[in-house]
Each structure stands twice: as structure tokens, then as C-alpha cells.
């Protein structure tokens, strides 16, 4: 087992030190122990390296900002172990890491298995709401939902001890790392890049998975050139736990038959151009020929700098703060009369102001809530309360903003604002089963 340092992952290594390496990545909310029942058979052929996500299983609480950063930490960990090339199987968030590795570090991968995977996990809005729920209530709501999402009803009824073990994994996860992982999954989308995955790939899914089901698995297989599908009967999202023998057999067969031993060609740097090639040295004692001295050329007149159009950046930030669903509704409702206004709001409010570095998004949300409450713009207050929760404010902090507003902007304005904010907070911090 590892002694984890910053920018590295907590890991465990089992099996012969001189065997080919197979890395196993966990799901969000689980630990490396989700692969316990695969490890004995896999270590007969491979050196198995399992890792924990940040803040999971007692790993240091060093959140990651993206799936790519998590993959980079894994590569740095494997570099420390002296592992240059490896097979990889990952589940859920662990599968997202596998897809990222296949796209950004294909020379490191010998073969790939994506378990309970999707090219885009649910929607950005859904994963950001998970973060809001955990920020407001801790991980208990996620722990209560886990059995119904991870296991079939039959398995849950027959194996209460395993269900309780799964719930405890979620409860003991660091909340900040869980929220950061949700944000990473919200931003993850490789739908347009699947055709660039060139490593042999097994896509494995539980037949009863309601989180990332067979439909998502078929999308992956249709997009990845060298991929095949395996649907495991009697399994939901945590198929390696629910149907360990079937999953182990599929992994052994895949990694035994689809292991590419040849390293990918290393790109050759472009040849130096004639302009960058040094001139040959003069022969000893030779007098260099006189060279004509050119008159200094006048500096070309530089065209005036043009600022890039802030619309696209504004649309990106608007979606991140208000949510895709809200922005899609606003843009779809725009017509010849209101379309210019929607463009103005996106370009200037979101592209010019919300993108500035002077204030972070949390502070901008505080200012916005105060202004909207003071002016009585309650419809706008409702969706900016949602935005404030997404931007990291807790319900308690929103309450403090409105109390401050009551003192300086008036009790009647704050009274109306409290009613709106309370309704929105109740909606956003409650997950539907």
C-alpha cells in the first residue's frame, strides 16, 4: 500500500512484481475495495494496482478539478512505481479516467475496459445539483440513495451486509472531494472524441443499471472503433460487486486476448527549418567574407488590437452558473422581438462582467442576490438563488446575505426574498429517488 504524497493517488499493489500491470479504477463514492472479488483471480496473471479517489477510503482530501487532472495524478503515481505501460479497467468515474487516458496518453495503454460508463454522465445540471445537495446536507442523502442505484432489489434484499458496506463507503467520503468529483463529471463529455480511441476496448454494463445503462454502453461501442459490448444479467451499477464471477471472467478474457504489447510510435519532432539551422563553421584561419549590411527595415505598422467577441465565453459561463436547462429554455423562447436582448445579456452581462477576475463567482452571487432582493426582482432572484448554490454558497450563507439585505435595503424586500429563496433551496437540496 502507498504512502500518498501531494498530486499522487493512494494505491494498493497486489500480484507478481514482474507481471504486466493492470490498473483498476473505482466508482464515485466507492474505494478500491469494490474490486476485492476480482483481485485474487486477476493477480494470477497480472500485477494489479488499485487506487482510491481523493478523499475516498481515507485518501488525502486533495480535490481534483477535472477528470483530466485525476488521470494526470494516476499517471504520476504509476511513474513513481516505474510502470510505463498498463491495462486499465475503470467503473463510473474510474471509467471516465480510462477514456481520458485513451485520448491523451494512448501510448501508455495496452488495453481498456469501461465498466458502467458513458461518454457523458447524465447532464451537467444533475451532477452540479448533487454538489448542491452534499454542500447543504452532507453525504447522508447520497448514502441513502446508493443501494437503489448501485444494486438490484433482489441482491439488496439477499445481501444486507454488502449494502451496508456500500453505504458506509459513501458516508466516510470527504464531502469536498465528492463535490469536486461531481463538478468534474459535470464537465466530462467525450462524445465527439470516441472515434479517436484506438486501444482495444471492452464496454461492460449491468443489464439493470439505471445510472449508466445499456443505452449509454451501446453509444460507446458505436463510437469506439475497436470496442465490443458485454451486458451482465442480474447486475445494476456496481456489477463487479453484484456479479463478481461474470465480471472477472469477462475481464480475464478481454485483457488476455486484447493486450497490445507494441508501444505506440513516439512522434518525431519536426525537422529544423533552414532559417533555424546554424551556418557551417568557417575553416581555421579563414577570413570571413564581407557581408553587405542592410539598412534597418522600418517596423511594420501594427493593426489595432481587436478584443475577441465575448459571446461564446459568456454563453459558457451562463450555462455553468444558471444551468443548461435554464439557458436552453431562455434561448428557445427567444424570437425576433427578444432575441437581441438574449444576445445582449449573454455577451455583456455574462461575457463581459461575470468573466472578470476581480471577484470570484461566490462573491458575485452575493452581490447579485442583494441587488435583486432590494429591487424586488423575485423571478430573477429565484434562478440566481439556484446559481448561488451552484457557485458554492450554502443555505446558511444565503440566509446571511438576505439578513444583511434586510438591514440595508428594507425588511419588506428581504421578507419576499426569504420566501423565494426558501422555496428554491428546498427544491435544490432534495434529491428525487
Task: Provide a descriptive summary of the structure in words.
With 433 residues, the protein is α/β, with parallel strands linked by helices. The chain contains 18 helices and seven strands. The chain has helices at residues 39-42, 67-80, 93-104, 124-137, 140-150, 153-158, 160-171, 175-187, 214-223, 239-242, 244-257, 311-322, 324-333, 339-353, 361-375, 378-390, 395-409, 411-428; strands at residues 11-14, 21-25, 47-51, 86-91, 109-115, 201-206, 227-232. It has a seven-stranded mixed β-sheet with strand order 1-3-2-4-5-6-7, with helices on both faces. β4, α3 and β5 form a beta-alpha-beta unit. α12 packs across α14. It is globular and about 70 Å long. The two termini are 37 Å apart.
How would the blueprint of this fold be written?
Blueprint: E1 11-14, E2 21-25, H1 39-42, E3 47-51, H2 67-80, E4 86-91, H3 93-104, E5 109-115, H4 124-137, H5 140-150, H6 153-158, H7 160-171, H8 175-187, E6 201-206, H9 214-223, E7 227-232, H10 239-242, H11 244-257, H12 311-322, H13 324-333, H14 339-353, H15 361-375, H16 378-390, H17 395-409, H18 411-428
Distance between the termini: 37 Å
Tell me the strand order in the biggest sheet: 1-3-2-4-5-6-7
**Residue share in β-strands:** 5-15%
- Determine the structural class based on helices, strands and strand pairing: alpha/beta
Main β sheet profile: 7 strands, mixed
Helix proportion range = 40-55%
Amino acid at each position: 500500500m502507498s504512502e500518498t504524497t501531494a498530486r499522487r493517488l493512494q494505491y494498493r499493489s497486489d500480484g507478481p512484481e514482474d507481471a504486466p500491470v493492470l490498473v483498476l479504477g473505482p466508482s464515485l463514492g466507492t474505494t478500491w475495495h469494490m474490486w476485492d472479488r476480482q483481485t485474487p483471480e486477476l493477480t494470477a496473471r497480472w500485477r494489479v494496482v488499485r487506487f482510491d479517489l481523493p478523499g475516498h477510503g481515507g485518501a488525502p482530501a486533495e480535490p481534483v478539478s477535472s477528470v483530466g487532472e485525476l488521470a494526470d495524478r494516476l499517471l504520476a503515481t504509476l511513474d513513481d512505481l516505474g510502470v510505463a505501460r498498463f491495462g486499465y479497467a475503470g467503473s463510473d468515474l474510474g471509467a471516465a479516467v480510462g477514456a481520458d487516458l485513451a485520448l491523451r496518453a494512448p501510448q501508455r495503454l495496452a488495453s481498456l475496459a469501461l465498466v458502467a460508463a458513458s461518454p457523458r454522465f447524465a447532464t451537467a445540471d444533475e451532477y452540479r445539483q448533487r454538489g448542491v445537495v452534499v454542500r447543504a446536507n452532507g453525504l447522508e442523502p447520497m448514502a441513502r440513495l446508493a443501494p437503489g442505484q448501485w444494486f438490484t432489489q433482489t441482491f439488496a434484499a439477499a445481501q444486507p451486509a454488502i449494502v451496508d458496506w456500500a453505504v458506509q463507503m459513501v458516508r466516510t467520503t470527504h464531502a469536498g472531494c465528492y463535490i469536486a468529483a461531481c463538478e468534474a463529471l459535470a464537465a466530462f463529455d467525450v462524445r465527439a472524441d470516441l472515434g479517436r480511441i484506438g486501444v482495444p476496448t471492452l464496454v461492460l454494463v449491468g443489464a439493470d443499471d439505471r445510472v449508466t445503462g445499456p443505452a449509454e454502453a451501446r453509444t460507446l461501442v458505436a463510437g469506439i472503433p475497436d470496442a465490443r459490448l458485454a451486458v451482465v444479467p442480474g447486475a445494476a451499477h456496481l456489477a463487479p460487486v453484484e456479479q463478481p464471477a461474470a465480471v472477472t471472467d469477462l475481464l480475464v478474457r478481454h485483457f488476455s486476448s486484447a493486450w497490445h504489447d507494441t508501444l505506440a510510435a513516439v512522434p518525431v519532432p519536426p525537422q529544423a527549418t533552414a532559417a533555424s539551422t546554424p551556418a557551417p563553421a568557417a575553416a581555421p584561419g579563414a577570413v570571413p567574407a564581407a557581408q553587405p549590411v542592410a539598412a534597418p527595415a522600418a517596423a511594420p505598422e501594427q493593426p489595432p488590437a481587436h478584443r475577441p467577441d465575448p459571446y461564446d465565453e459568456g454563453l459558457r459561463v451562463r450555462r455553468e452558473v444558471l444551468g443548461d436547462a435554464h439557458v436552453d429554455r431562455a434561448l428557445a423562447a427567444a424570437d425576433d422581438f427578444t432575441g437581441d436582448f438574449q444576445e445582449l445579456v449573454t455577451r455583456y452581462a455574462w461575457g463581459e462582467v461575470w468573466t472578470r477576475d476581480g471577484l470570484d463567482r461566490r462573491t458575485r452571487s452575493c452581490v447579485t442576490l442583494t441587488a435583486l432582493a432590494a429591487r424586488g426582482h423575485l423571478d430573477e432572484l429565484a434562478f440566481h438563488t439556484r446559481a448561488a448554490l451552484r457557485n458554492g454558497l450554502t443555505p446558511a450563507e444565503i440566509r446571511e446575505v438576505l439578513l444583511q439585505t434586510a438591514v440595508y435595503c428594507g425588511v419588506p424586500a428581504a421578507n419576499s426574498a426569504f420566501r423565494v429563496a426558501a422555496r428554491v433551496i428546498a427544491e435544490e437540496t432534495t434529491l428525487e429517488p
